[in-house]
Design goal:
The protein is built from seven helices and five strands; from the N terminus they run βαββαααββααα. With about 200 residues, the protein is mainly alpha-helical.
Amino acid sequence: MVFEWFGGYDGLSTFVPYGDDELYRRRPTIGVREQDVLKADEHFGFQKSMVGMQRLWEEGNCAVIHGCGYEQPSFSHFASSSFWHTGAPNSGEAYGWYGRTADALDPTGSPNFLVNIASAQSLAVRAHEHVPVVFNDPGAFRRDFFHPGWATGRRRAARFTSSCSTSTRARAMHRPWSARPGRTTRARGAMRACSTSTRSSR
């Protein structure tokens, strides 16, 4: 399980270097004070609300890595986020580090092997062999749910797929928009083939 704190996360107010006077010289009003720290050692500690993290630390199940970065850094927020999610700076890597891990652990692509709880899929879980399950509200997550306005589209999709051969449909529908270089072009070709066969059968 991986938690990604994205956006306003502040490392100096999370794992606080309370033993360094420079923190309070630089942050005289917002620096987290020693009395508000759950101490990990004589220099660092967790912000006081992070009781669970402190417990994991004491059990030896949590580690903190300071000063993460990479050579030849990009000053683009978006490029840096991409490097963070792929774990491969300046490489053009298309798949996320977590997705590649899933591929290595389960190369057969078992369903529901990757679960991404968020409002949108993270690049970190993009995989070659796996399609992540993505949702942000477990209470509202239902396989049989669809908006009433989608019914027409669903009926059209049913007619579309029923008119295609099994092999053509497989080429068209197997992860068409997020796969290897060239697959998008092949998938679009298969979709056009289905569309052609549908028109000719009418």
